[in-house]
Amino acid sequence: MPLVKRGNPTSPAGATPAHEGIASYTSALANPDPDTRWTAARALGARAEAVPALAAALSTEGVPRVREAIMTALMRVGDNASVAALLPYMRSQDASVRSSAIEALQAMPDTIQPFMARLFQDDDTDVRILASELARNLPADDATRILCALLQDEQHPNVCAAAIDVLAEVGTSAAVPVLRACAQRFSQMPFLPFAVSLAIARITGSEGSGME
Hints:
By secondary structure, the protein is mainly alpha-helical. It contains 13 helices and no strands. The longest helix has 14 residues.
């Protein structure tokens, strides 16, 4: 589901006249009609004061396109409260909900960054794996620093594999020593040293294994 990037809505349904308050829109989020809820969510995308109402509506919304509109609205606000409202959906049992939440959070790289350390300390392995995906849109130096900090302490091979995959795409040369140390730590699991070799080769632009 391609979420609309942050910014002012361009469609009439998404426009919020400056002279209008938010009360009518926030109350419309509970309307029985899905189209009315969708329009309300679109209209609240630039209103930080509407985040609590959007978060509450998201927790009960069952119609996918309305839920996506609410997530898009939170993404357009893009503040800490919006991130906090979206983070719980990384734990959803619904793959489409998880995917939409990750996509929305990835679109807020500056805001999500302070939350990353906490996510990487989560007891849920799946949350740590998904958190690695949030680093893809961070500046390369920041993504490298955050993911290397994870790799230095992470004990679960699948979490390490997720971080290595992202580093292969966005990592800088500063990641190479940490990647090599990770490969040595998991030397009994061939898939991880192999993934590290590919990541180092991609980061350094070499054609060899990257492990020499």
